[in-house]
Design a protein that fits this description.
single chain; 329 residues; alpha/beta; 7-stranded parallel sheet; 3-stranded mixed sheet; globular; binds nicotinamide-adenine-dinucleotide; binds UDP-4-deoxy-4-formamido-beta-L-arabinopyranose
Length: 329
């Protein structure tokens, strides 16, 4: 099988490329390097000792995207490419809608023209309304409070309608919860540009002395230790989950959604103390006000992915902390 991996130089995409190559898939990567670098591409090649075509391409450029589809006979697309920073999307909504929707529309048009019958789409837990009871399931009501979340919601709607007309196509939307960690080689990992909004890269950068302390956004939530709870999933588990999704797409047509998480909630304080214990270091932190828009608790029921995809995350919080530090260090 030949797979187009859009956003394959990014955090989740690069880790998935290593698993695809190690499972014998041929891949082609297209990425405009807006939030990544060739270091990730080099890392994938070093880890797998395999090479593959790379196109530095903005997928919002329809002609350039068409050129890639005209040059390869793809069996499937894994569409990681997209902007994903919530705060940035609030400040720059049009940029988020343009980038995330136009790229997805171009992919759909090229898939239709070249009869590429499968797509795995990177969606997110942010598509769920923020007043849902936990655990979240694939049937939990949808709705967002920021342009990033709405852009993912809209891309899913585009893909639903696409699947409804291309009835021999398979469209799988994977709603990732909180991916963290890195490949055990330490050659690829999460390299956000600028100051990270997300907890784990901020912890790692603080451990390296880049920041003086971690600010815990609120310890007065209705949770056991008062800090926010999330469903963290190791990025390598997530990468492997894409193999399950491809197998599902090979046997099914139509549109299907799966939550990818562990089903286990972990608090900010638990993550910090685990990172300290696993890596034998001390992390300075202080309590700061709550961050606007944050949920107190968010985690999924992993049942549907387990039952239908045969996917179950197996790596632990300790693995996530160890692998993050191994990469960062
Ligand atoms: P990332 O920013 O590391 O990777 C995304 C990649 O897409 C980057 O390499 C970027 O350069 C590329 N890209 C963006 N716009 C592009 C365009 N127009 N043309 C070509 N390439 C483009 O992000 P990630 O964490 O690897 O996330 C991958 C996908 O998963 C994204 O769609 C994101 O919304 C989604 N997601 C991420 C998380 C998370 O917490 N990391 C959670 C849920 C969903
Ligand atoms: C996790 C917990 C914070 C930073 C985000 C995006 C979502 C998705 C995954 C793309 C929360 C707390 C954080 C810090 C802190 N990405 N925190 N101090 O907000 O669950 O989800 O990433 O789809 O779109 O919203 O992840 O890592 O930002 O926060 O206390 O410096 O850590 O309050 O409880 P979040 P996060």
């Amino acid at each position: 099988m030949k797979i187009l991996v859009t956003g394959g130089a990014g955090y989740i995409g690069s880790h998935t490329c290593t698993v695809l190559l190690e499972n014998g898939y041929d891949i082609v990567v297209a990425d405009n390097l807006a939030n990544s670098s060739m270091d990730a591409i080099d890392g994938i090649k070093k880890i797998t000792q395999k090479s593959f075509p790379f196109y530095k391409t903005d997928l919002c450029d329809e002609a350039a995207t068409e050129e890639i589809f005209a040059s390869h006979k793809f069996d499937c697309v894994i569409h990681f490419a997209g902007l994903k920073a919530v705060a940035e999307s609030v400040a720059k909504p049009i940029m988020y809608y343009e980038n995330n929707l136009i790229s997805t529309l171009n992919i759909c048009k090229c898939m239709k023209k070249h009869r590429v019958p499968k797509i795995i789409f990177s969606s997110s837990a942010v598509v769920y309304k923020n007043d849902n009871p936990m655990p979240l399931t694939e049937d939990s009501p949808l709705g967002s409070i920021n342009a990033y979340g709405w852009s993912k919601f809209m891309c899913e709607q585009i893909l639903r309608d696409f699947a409804a007309t291309e009835t021999d196509f398979s469209v799988v939307s994977l709603r990732y919860f909180n991916p963290v960690g890195a490949h055990t080689s330490g050659l690829i990992g999460e390299e956000p540009s600028g100051i990270p909004n997300n907890l784990m890269p901020f912890i790692a950068q603080t451990a390296r002395g880049i920041h003086s302390e971690i600010k815990i956004f609120g310890n007065d939530y209705d949770t056991p230790d008062g800090t926010g709870i999330r469903d963290y999933i190791h990025v390598m588990d997530l990468a492997e989950g894409h193999m399950n999704a491809i197998n599902f797409a090979n046997k099914n047509t139509g549109f299907e959604v799966f939550n990818l998480g562990t089903g286990r909630g972990v608090s900010v304080l638990e993550m910090i103390t685990t990172f300290e214990t696993v890596n034998g270091l001390k992390l300075p932190y202080s309590i700061a006000p709550r961050r606007a828009g944050d949920l107190p608790v968010s985690y999924t029921s992993p049942k549907k992915a387990e039952k239908i995809l045969g996917f179950k995350a197996k790596r632990t919080i300790e693995d996530m902390c160890r692998d993050t530090w191994n990469f960062r260090r």
